[in-house]
Amino acid sequence: MWLLNTRSTGLQMHNKQTLRRGAISFDNPDQNAPCVRMLGNARVRGQAGLLSERRGSYPVIDFRLLNTTSHSGEIGTKKRVKRLLSFQRYFHASRLLRGIGPQTCLHLLDEDYLGQARHMLSKVGRWNFDIFLFDRLTNGNSLVTLLCHLFNLHGLIHHFQLDMVKLHRFLVMIQEDYHSQNPYHNAVHAADVTQAMHCYLKEPKLAEFLTPLDIMLGLTAAAAHDVDHPGVNQPFLIKTKHHLASLYQNISVLENHHWRSTVGMLRESGLLAHLPVEMIQDIEQQLGSLILATDISRQNEFLTRMKTHLDNRDLSLEDADHKHFILQIALKCADICNPCRVWNMSKQWSEKVCEEFYRQGDLEQRFHFEVSPLCNQQKDTVPSIQIGFMSYIVEPLFVEWSRFTENTPLTITMMSHLCKNKARWRGLLLKQHNSEDNSAQVNEDKSRISQEVEHQ
């Protein structure tokens, strides 16, 4: 049946709100109004009355305080040209990845690089998959290339009769809406989370119960879970009185925006327009439930429920709600799995996320706000941040995931990497403390010698 059970997602519909895009506003929208669609950056309302964000919903956070950028007047034109060229490049690459030779040589990607990318995709289910290398081999198009491959690999294109042009359009929209200037929350992070989600969907305890719809939801939610992330966290949006914080009443502000943006792109691309309305509504709701689960402030809520299910041994993945809950847990694991990767990749992600934290701290100092926790580069070091993150966030979640999967080879590998990486960060932290102690001792000795010389 196309009509699926609709789950509660914590969706908050606002009967009275003002949504502004420049001079455009919607005041007290009629929830029963017909579908309203606007091009560009406006919102899109579907038949169910669900509001969706679209690209550029954020008033731009001015990172020119930290970095010099191009003139704002050039951005729109450059982005449009980039999107057009990107689509042509993706289409050309996808034909090659499917074994169809190019009719004309576009010289957009080196054939050797495409060959290496194809080779990497043949190993996309391995945990040591290097997303940084893959992004370079695909000329910065790792998310689109990966999603096209995974949709084809899982038979989703055939099962849902997806139009390839519309699929490319949707995936390009997602990739383009990630902010490349973000050190961490960018399209490469989304691709990394998607590849991890693919690995988790293959876990035997879960895989046998998954339908094509479950797989499509899991991969799409992973790809879009941080779309249009501004590079700052929710507390920053709240204390700067950002309009999205008011719109979502300071609750899962970023996650709500990621979800609504994804819904807007789905509708604008027309990817699912051929499906029954009831199914489209269910897909949108379930995407929201999955993406909202990545809110780190809800960690204890999900962890407690997971522990309870495992302790009581009452998880039944034949039950739709239980299966959806495990998909939420899988996405949460994929979102924070960096410490479970091999050291060279894990270390890169750690440095990138801390750089993003420090940028926020610099902004807060510029605007004379109190610097948020973990964002003070002088006090919060990368090793100390990572050790705390692993101890209080990552380990508790992955311990329960290990109990669920019953220690599969993948889980054993991840837990081994986590243990080794944590030990390496502790070693670096100890070295850092010793260096600081030595520096302090040297300064003290210099001061003492200086005073002795003066007395002589």
Class from helix and strand fractions? mainly alpha
How would you sum up the global shape?
globular
Helices and strands, in N-to-C order?
EEEEHHHHHHHHHHHHHHHHHH
Q: State the strand order across the main sheet.
A: 1-2
Count the E strands.
4
Indicate the topology.
Blueprint: E1 18-21, E2 24-27, E3 44-45, E4 51-52, H1 72-97, H2 111-121, H3 131-137, H4 142-153, H5 156-159, H6 164-177, H7 187-201, H8 204-207, H9 212-224, H10 234-239, H11 243-247, H12 253-269, H13 277-292, H14 299-312, H15 320-335, H16 343-366, H17 382-405, H18 409-455
Antiparallel strand pairs: 1-2, 3-4
Helix pairs in contact: 1-4, 1-6, 4-6, 4-7, 4-9, 6-12, 7-9, 7-15, 9-13, 9-15, 12-13, 13-15, 14-17, 17-18
Relevant terms:
456 residues, mainly alpha, two-stranded antiparallel sheet, 18 helices, 4 strands, 3% strand, disordered N terminus
Describe the structure.
- The protein has 456 residues and is mostly helical.
- The protein is built from 18 helices and four strands.
- It has helices spanning 72-97, 111-121, 131-137, 142-153, 156-159, 164-177, 187-201, 204-207, 212-224, 234-239, 243-247, 253-269, 277-292, 299-312, 320-335, 343-366, 382-405, 409-455; strands at 18-21, 24-27, 44-45, 51-52.
- The strands form two sheets. A two-stranded antiparallel sheet has the order 1-2. A two-stranded antiparallel ribbon has the order 3-4.
- Strand 3 (44-45) and strand 4 (51-52) form a beta hairpin.
- Helix 4 packs parallel to helix 7 and helix 13 packs across helix 15 (320-335).
- The protein is globular.
- The relative contact order is 0.10.
- The model is unreliable at 1-45, 62-76 and 81-109 (pLDDT under 50).
